Amino acid sequence: MCIKLQHRDKRSYTRAKDILTPTSRLSCMAQQTSVKGLVERVLSPGSEDRAFLDQFVRYLAAYKVVEQNLSLFDRLARCRSVEEFASVLYECVRVKDRVLSRLEEGVRRGEYRLAFDAKAEDVGRVFNVGSEAVERVVRLAAENPRFVGSVLASLALSYGGIVEAERRG
Question: Its domain of life (predicted)?
Answer without folding.
Answer: Archaea
